[in-house]
UniProtKB/TrEMBL annotation, chain A:
It is a multi-pass membrane protein. InterPro entries: ABC_transp_permease (IPR001851), BCAA_transport_permease (IPR052157). This is Branched-chain amino acid ABC transporter permease. It comes from the Bacteria. Belongs to the binding-protein-dependent transport system permease family. LivHM subfamily. It is found in: Cell membrane. It comes from Actinoplanes flavus. Coiled coil: none annotated.
Length: 288, 234, 369
């Protein structure tokens, strides 16, 4: 029993990371039609920015700075690199591919290729006893952050003007423009939001794994991609459900099966979902 | 003339769809844009709006329109009611309308006067509305803001005869305040609303003049539109 | 997904693309047709040259170091063109090509090093296995299209990467990679003095890919594939199944990748997880786009140059300031610039320079090379 609880909470912690990365990716893809390979870069940028000041500033200001830097990076990437290629989706994907390669190399040249120890606040290292299981507190930090982000995103999408524009734009971009709305401002906004959430994920992942490295973003990104596709492109709640499914499946199968079987089963899940419901769990038809 | 189109040319997916369309839209009344299926009526409207790349000359309210962003043209008073309505299916009726608002005092009075139904259904998802109700939302969206010209694409397509009549009545009321460029296959509706008419054929303007003249000439109607004057949409 | 701005024909492609063959072969035209053969000839005899090109290569051309570097470039030129069969021709943006390269490399490596198989049967079996793998996974992945297809191929390849890294049963050597045991290899591929044979092997691989892909370009299949890329409906109207055609292209590309992977393992003497990573696929995309996706020679040139720069920059790394010491920074930045300023890749640059070249040429004399 205690093993199951520990595995479940660890799986949910992983799911929280996936969700933080995938929700931004999903919104960016759903609205702007851009498959953003540079999303992993936002994650690493946020993590390194926080790491740089965490010694001198303390945890909370460092987190805020990391998130702000990642959000700014996201917005700048949209304004400078993506926007000039408006509607040329293949070229946009290619640019993000180039950016992901060059960006990681840039981080490497500044901070080195090796992993850095990421400091975690003392309370994050404590353990909590739940149903006989000794659960590290950082799991709750991850899960709590993800739930807050989910609620915040849903409230933003439902109750604000920009949220309305984003929901409408995910359905039909052209029609939003035809109502006199400059939908590209919403693009910049979702890139900034996606960057912020990825940056947060990078910092939390740094605490969770106790280390950061330039390539960390890229490896998490692939599972986030899978979550986005399973959840349905453009759907935040779909991404949440898919993240939970993927995180739990991966954790349990990795523990009870052979090493790596969890990762393989996630891909099998992806294949199954795509064959049964090509649009993903939450419906928006995957645009060609 | 609120809209002047000259030598408008559009290529899409390797085919030359519009090859020098030219016509004007008067400051008042309804100008009908006619032609067989697939001749390029929708493409003409989309080109005016800047949704498809086009060459040639388009003057909206005396200013060049080609090359300007769609949302800017719309803000300058170019309202668009697209073919197949394009309401946002996942948003409620109220949200669809709220999204369209861009002036401090939107004309909800007019909208609910024309479509009392929409007030009742404010909380319903637009995707679950009937075709006629969706058309009401699509028209209501543009009426909330002041317009200099409306582009309306096949508003009666796929609607029951009684609903067609209702939509035509609404358009007639609207036309009293703002000019409309109307794409319409139902010639009875055209006869009721249109003062002027333009017919496209093979990517070009094949006929322009008074709508009454076109419709009273059975031969011209048949050769240009492929239908008898009494027929509606096949 | 349409690669809209990629020109389907470049000047180099025009002789084959204009199907009613040009009435008279002008001297420059014949020259252009002979140029690849001449280039091949030069490449074949190059190992006998002791020419030194300081700055470009460290040793003389026939030194093992230079030949090895060139061999890697040739392998990547072939891999890039094989990938371009998918991307540039059929318009399929696969993010999982590395899987088939890795299947070829690890297949040969494992069978030779662990099981002591002889080389040639191993290569045949491995390439066949890569083809079967591509057929199975392609059959699933091609049920989707557009971005979803990219994602599915990426995910499949990721499984390969994970499995290789986990070192199941001690087969793959995990993160360290698996050196190719020279005991099982024919003598001509072992030892530093025999680097030249590896060079020729890489050249042979590239030739096979070029001949295969160019034959497909010229065959009805090639035109159907580009038709598919531009407008799937048009092909469906012709009564052909887009699904089967795409699967055929996918399997062909996978087979060529498997062959390339096998060649790569021989050239570099082993396999490492890097060749199974999504980064390898991304670099194949970069090569194809840099050179000019969908053109006859674009991917070949792009792959060769990319591999050259990658290796040279890595070697110069320490001496360059800041991020310029990172090959991927330079290549990624170049790539982004290319997407903006040379959307057709190097191939389009050469066509843009064509008027200039024509103006500079005094008269159409059959000048010697
Ligand atoms: N994006 C596109 N790519 C390629 N061809 C297109 C595209 N959009 C429209 N077309 C073609 O352009 C032509 C004109 O289309 P358009 O929708 O403007 O016709 P229409 O006159 O509005 O027809 P209908 O009366 O059926 O609404 C059609 O043949 C259509 O197939
Ligand atoms: Mg139409």
């Amino acid at each position: 029993m205690s093993t199951v609880v520990l595995l479940a909470l660890t799986g949910l912690g992983l799911a929280a990371l996936y969700f933080l990365i995938a929700s931004g990716l999903s919104l960016v893809f759903g609205l702007a039609g851009v498959l953003n390979f540079a999303h992993g870069l936002f994650l690493s940028v946020g993590a390194y920015a926080a790491w740089t000041v965490s010694e001198s500033w303390g945890a909370i200001p460092a987190i805020l700075l990391g998130v702000a830097v990642a959000a700014t990076t996201g917005a700048l990437v949209e304004l400078v690199l993506i926007r000039p290629l408006y509607t040329r989706h293949t070229e946009q994907v290619l640019v993000t591919v180039g950016l992901s390669l060059a960006g990681v190399a840039l981080l490497q040249s500044v901070w080195g290729a090796d992993a850095r120890v990421f400091p975690r606040p003392a309370w994050a290292s404590s353990v909590v006893n739940i149903a006989g299981a000794q659960v590290p507190a950082d799991r709750f930090l991850l899960i709590g952050a993800a739930v807050l982000v989910l609620l915040g995103l849903l409230a933003f999408l439902r109750f604000t003007r920009y949220g309305l524009v984003i929901r409408a734009g995910v359905e039909n971009r052209d029609m939003v423009s035809a109502l006199g709305i400059d939908v590209r401002n919403a693009f910049t906004l979702v890139f900034a939001i996606g960057g912020a959430l990825a940056g947060l994920a990078g910092i939390l992942a740094g605490m969770y794994f106790s280390s950061i490295s330039p390539g960390q973003g890229a490896s998490l990104l692939i599972f986030a991609f899978i979550v986005v596709v399973i959840g349905g492109l453009g759907s935040v709640t779909g991404a949440f459900a898919a993240a939970v499914a993927v995180g739990l499946l991966q954790q349990f199968v990795n523990y009870y099966g052979t090493a790596g079987a969890g990762d393989v089963s996630v891909v099998a899940l992806l294949a199954a979902v795509l064959l049964l419901r090509p649009a993903g769990l939450a419906g928006k038809a995957a645009p060609a | 003339m609120i809209l002047k189109i000259n030598n408008l040319s559009v290529r899409l997916g390797g085919s030359h769809i519009l090859q020098g369309v030219a016509f004007d839209v008067a400051e008042t009344g309804v100008t009908a844009l006619l032609g067989r299926n697939g001749v390029g009526k929708t493409t003409t409207l989309r080109a005016v709006l800047g949704e498809v790349p086009a060459t040639g000359e388009v003057l909206f309210d005396g200013r060049p329109a080609l090359g300007r962003a769609t949302h800017r043209l719309v803000r300058d008073g170019l309202g668009y009611v697209p073919e197949d309505r394009c309401v946002f299916a996942g948003l409620t009726v109220a949200e669809n309308l709220r999204l369209a608002v861009r002036v401090p005092s939107p004309d909800f009075d007019l909208v609910f006067d024309l479509f009392p139904e929409l007030r009742k259904r404010a909380g319903q998802r637009a995707g679950t509305l009937s075709g006629g109700q969706q058309q009401m939302v699509a028209i209501a969206r543009v009426l909330l803001n002041p317009n200099r010209l409306l582009l309306v694409d096949e508003p009666t397509k796929g609607l029951a005869p009684a609903v067609v009549t209702a939509v035509a009545a609404v358009l007639e009321r609207i036309a009293a305040r703002v000019p409309i460029l109307l794409v319409e296959q139902n010639l009875a509706v055209v006869r009721r609303l249109a003062t002027d008419a333009v017919v496209l054929e093979a990517g070009r303007t094949a006929w322009r003049g008074r709508a009454a003249d076109l419709l009273s000439d059975a031969d011209a109607t048949r050769s240009l539109l492929g239908v008898g004057t009494t027929a509606g949409r096949h | 997904m349409k690669s809209s701005s990629v020109p389907t024909t470049s000047p180099a492609a025009s002789p084959a693309a204009s199907s009613p063959s040009p009435p008279s072969v002008t001297p420059p035209g014949r020259l252009r047709r002979l140029a690849p053969l001449l280039a091949l000839l030069v490449a074949v005899v190059l190992p006998w040259s002791t020419l030194r090109l300081p700055g470009l290569f460290e040793g003389p051309l026939n030194s093992p170091g230079t030949l090895q570097l060139l061999a890697v470039c040739l392998v990547f030129a072939g891999l890039a063109l094989g990938y371009d069969l998918l991307f540039g021709r059929a318009g399929l943006l696969s993010f999982g090509h590395a899987l088939y390269v890795a299947a070829g490399a690890y297949g040969v490596d494992i069978l030779v090093s662990h099981y002591g198989w002889r080389l040639w049967p191993t290569v045949a079996v491995t390439v066949l296995a890569a083809a079967v793998l591509a057929a199975l996974l392609g059959a699933v992945a091609l049920r989707t299209s557009g971005i979803a297809f990219s994602m599915v191929t990426l995910a499949f390849a990721q499984v390969g990467h994970i499995v290789i890294n986990r070192d199941p049963g001690g087969l793959t050597g995990g993160e360290e990679g698996l050196p190719l045991s020279s005991a099982g290899l024919p003598a001509m591929f072992t030892g530093v003095v025999n680097t030249v044979n590896l060079y020729w092997l890489a050249l042979a691989f590239l030739t096979v890919v070029v001949v295969t892909v160019h034959t497909i370009d010229r065959a009805p299949l090639g035109r159907t594939l580009t038709g598919l890329r531009d407008d799937e409906r048009r092909i469906a109207v012709l009564g052909l199944s887009p699904y089967r055609l795409k699967l055929l292209a996918f399997v062909l590309a996978g087979t060529l990748a498997g062959l390339g992977g096998a060649t790569y393992a021989l050239v570099v003497g082993g396999a490492s997880p890097h060749i199974a990573s999504s980064e390898l696929t991304l670099s194949l995309i970069v090569m194809a786009v840099l050179g000019g996706a969908g053109t006859r020679w674009g991917a070949v040139v792009g792959g060769f140059l990319y591999a050259y720069l990658d290796q040279r920059l890595a070697r110069l790394g320490g001496s360059l300031p800041g991020p310029f010491g990172e090959p991927l920074f330079v290549l990624g930045t170049l790539f982004i610039l290319a997407v903006y300023f040379a959307p057709g890749g190097l191939a389009s640059l050469s066509s843009r320079l064509e008027p200039l070249r024509r103006a500079l040429r005094p008269r159409p004399a059959p000048d010697a090379i």
